[in-house]
Amino acid sequence: MTIRDPTTDSRSRTPQTDAAASVAPAARETAAVLSDDHALDRQLEAVLMVADEPQGLVHLATAVGRPIAEVAASVARLVADFDGLRSADGTKTVRRGFELREIAGGWRIYVRATHDELVTDFVLTQNPSRLSQAALETLAVIAYKQPISRGQVASIRAVNVDSVVRTLLGRGLVTEAFTDSETGAINYATTDLLLTQLGINSLDELPHLSPLLDGGTDGFEDLL
Fold this sequence. Notes:
Blueprint (H helix, E strand, L loop, with lengths): L14 H36 L6 H8 L3 H15 L15 E6 L2 E6 L4 H11 L6 H13 L2 E2 H8 L4 H10 L2 E6 L6 E5 L1 H7 L26
Helix pairs in contact: 1-3, 2-3, 5-7
């Protein structure tokens, strides 16, 4: 007499079992897609958190090694996520104190406008540490050569000025004046706060630098 194995007997399989078997692969595939999207979202979020200038989709796609279409979809998810609309898995999230904003054809994380006053007060009154020598030198270059890009400042100082410019922005001493339409580079200028700190009414009252430089009139003014 042959004893049938219930696990292989087709008569032992119910319609519910067949349905579950057919749904399982689809569920696993959906979970894999969500996991992949989540990983991409977090990668782009990390890159955008340290970016000093708006990042185009092509640049972002190159950074994470993914197709532009996938990166564009991920950026849209991040915008919705930060705005408290939905996350990668479709659930509603909490509206963040920052936002992902498109500027001059690129994307960058900014403090949400509703918190500008709070952040400005914190930076100017709650964090009053002195500027470093590097920050003072960079501020001087911007003050005398504005509007000027970070690349131009770096060429004058012969060092990377990314972190220093972020510090000056955070202190409210410089601001983003405009973005070059051709290069995408942000140009910076000083703010009225600098005039207040220096006790002058306009930039015209800044002292002339040429007499203070080696070589007299040959120097700073000819660097750009």
